[in-house]
Amino acid sequence: MLVEKKVMEIPAFQTVSGSRLTGVRIGYEVYGRLNAAGDNAILIPRSYSSTSHVAGKYSTTDAAPGIFDSVIGPGKTLDTDRYFIVSTDNLINVAAKDPTVTTVGPSSTNPATGKPYGMRFPIIQIRDLVNADKAILDALGVKKLHAVVGWSMGSMQAFEWSVAYPDFVSRVGALLPIAQMDGYTVAQLDNWGSAITLDPKWNNGDYYEGPAPTDGLTRTLNTLHITQRSYGWGTNLAATPSKPDRSPASSWDAGFAAVANMQAASAARTKVFDANAILYGNRAMQLFSVGGVATLEEGFRPAKAKFLIVPARSDVLFFPAYGQRAVEALRKNGRDVTYLEIDGTGGHFDGVFEIKQATSALRTLLQ
Amino acid sequence: MLVEKKVMEIPAFQTVSGSRLTGVRIGYEVYGRLNAAGDNAILIPRSYSSTSHVAGKYSTTDAAPGIFDSVIGPGKTLDTDRYFIVSTDNLINVAAKDPTVTTVGPSSTNPATGKPYGMRFPIIQIRDLVNADKAILDALGVKKLHAVVGWSMGSMQAFEWSVAYPDFVSRVGALLPIAQMDGYTVAQLDNWGSAITLDPKWNNGDYYEGPAPTDGLTRTLNTLHITQRSYGWGTNLAATPSKPDRSPASSWDAGFAAVANMQAASAARTKVFDANAILYGNRAMQLFSVGGVATLEEGFRPAKAKFLIVPARSDVLFFPAYGQRAVEALRKNGRDVTYLEIDGTGGHFDGVFEIKQATSALRTLLQ
């Protein structure tokens, strides 16, 4: 499936925190066709480190298709012959330097100064991401979402959709789900970002005219990488040195293959990730509690949709317990909820690489 | 129970990596009395961030007793009326700046230069910790260990004891166990230390004559703190701001109570922890595979002891799967192994705070 990146401009956007942004340009992709009633749309809110490119290739020579291509396309679980699939780059996308991404965030030019915002960009919340996608869906003519299906940070948006626009959302698929932050995750997210702010090149976020805090960003991405994995990773990699002729038992100038693999993956991502955007993404997640209230039960009260909740059993980022908390709160509100755990030892990544375990449940949700 | 810190000097010590250390002074504590046969001793190898102070108080005015006081003492699970309990500060103790700790490591003076070793101190392995404790036990007249009972990094030593000195060790209690590194844990440990090496004050480990890399060390200890917890932490702390009059939704100058709590705990520990010693402790763990060979089954072949393996169910540092791998390898070698999981949502910390769940099994092991 060949797909095309498009850009939508939202003329004026008011953030939850009270800031006003103008001329907000956001990249998006659509697959399939919107029906006349405007009610066959499925939104895939972006996850933390993904973009609107969730399916297909831009060109036949692309190395890999969009991240959820295995479930999106003609005849697939999210069938583009039946549904109008929409995904957007949204605000504060961490891949701000990716040439295929159009987003607004700390690296954007502040029209008031003509310079990048840096950490003066307004703090963005999950509800803001929902509202930005709502503006795009409205402009595309979508009258009702057949479903919103989100992974990880996308699950937060999916949950928030169900209570922000309860009459607009018929079904919610929340994979690798979390509906409310706890202290553990708040601290975990602080920890991700802390290597960035420790790097002297970060310079309180004003690094756009000099060298980027690449060392700190690399370490942040290492943390992200580990937290997305689990005990199934690298049982054969432990004692393998990164340099075959040097032993990490005798020299600090030698390390381990597992670390080198991780660092290479992170270094590649530093080319497209903006360090400040990581901090904004973390803060958005840290602030999240569905509906913006203290308890999950109260937060889910406005919801009218049908729900599918799918954590991964070995996930140590968004633990299955988080999905179970959402199930409990939804059931107390009388909602129809299906719960399924993806089995495996791959951690958070199982939500992507083992998604085939959830396709049958996703099909049932969409019926 | 009032206890006393003592110091043993090992005149000459050869490391596994081939370095020779002289005049190695190591702090230790003993509780109970060694019997005439010298065979009623129980060794408690230190864990990563603990010291030889595992029970009792130095003075009646101490705020808290040693870390495993709940199970060590007269009539307790590790009964000091019957057993001679030994614990040591060992080499490369991370709490090198704690005045009650005596250890040798990167902050020690290199006799060849009269200056601190820094990162020129030899790389230490788990087997070295075992050998140092063996020298101390020999000097104390211990002929045989009734048991070695270790938590976390202490479990590595307990396992290594069973194959390094199989005729010396009758029973092994391994709590929060890991017998062989995998890529996940190797990368995780790299991640702990990476904030230290990112701090410009670290200066390649030569900071002893200037300011210590306290910012980096604090962040490292934050990572340690999170990794030792799990999804049971802070369900009520998420949205709580660190400053009651500022909202983290509107200002970067405001954060979350969970982060502030963690940072305060870490900041306190920076007063006694040496940053380089963290790197040495991490490397020792990263290099670990029981018996120094590639497979667990081969590694455990020399073992003769009886084993008790006790992971904590929600531990995301040393997952229950790691304990299960050890059980499988031991059983393939025909060893008598009891396996018990500590139930809870507190993560690695459950191995300390929920140890009462394992006391009955520990008593059975010691019979």
Multimeric status of the protein: homodimer
Structural class estimated from helices and strands of chain A: alpha/beta
The helix/strand order of chain A is EEEEEEEEHEHEHHHHHEHEHH
Major β-sheet strand ordering of chain A: 1-2-6-3-9-10-11-12
Query: Helix tally of chain A?
Result: 10
End-to-end separation of chain A in angstroms reads 24 Å
Name of the CATH architecture of the largest domain in chain A = 3-Layer(aba) Sandwich
Compute the average pLDDT of chain A. 96
Number of strands of chain A: 12
Shape type of chain A: globular
Largest interface: A-B, 62 and 62 residues
Total discrete domains of chain A = 2
Give the DSSP E fraction of chain A (strand runs of 2 or more residues). Answer: 15-25%
Label this structure with key terms.
homodimer; 367 residues; alpha/beta; Rossmann fold; Rna Polymerase Sigma Factor, Chain: A; 2 domains; eight-stranded mixed sheet; two-stranded parallel sheet; 10 helices; 31% helix; AB_hydrolase_1 (chains A, B); AB_hydrolase_fold (chains A, B)
Written account of the structure:
The structure is a homodimer of 367-residue chains. Chain A is an alpha/beta fold. Chain A has ten helices and twelve strands. Chain A has two domains: 6-182 and 288-366, Alpha/Beta hydrolase fold, catalytic domain (Rossmann fold), CATH 3.40.50; 186-232 and 262-279, Rna Polymerase Sigma Factor, Chain: A. Helix content of chain A is 31%, strand content 16%. In chain A, strands 1-2-6-3-9-10-11-12 form an eight-stranded mixed beta sheet, with helices on both faces. The first copy, chain A, has a two-stranded parallel sheet with strand order 4-5. In chain A, strand 11 (306-310), helix 8 and strand 12 (337-339) form a beta-alpha-beta unit. In chain A, helix 3 (183-198) packs antiparallel against helix 4 (214-228), helix 3 (183-198) runs antiparallel to helix 6 and helix 4 (214-228) packs across helix 5. Chain A is globular, with a radius of gyration of 20 Å. At the A-B interface, helix 3, helix 4 and helix 5 of A face helix 3, helix 4 and helix 5 of B.
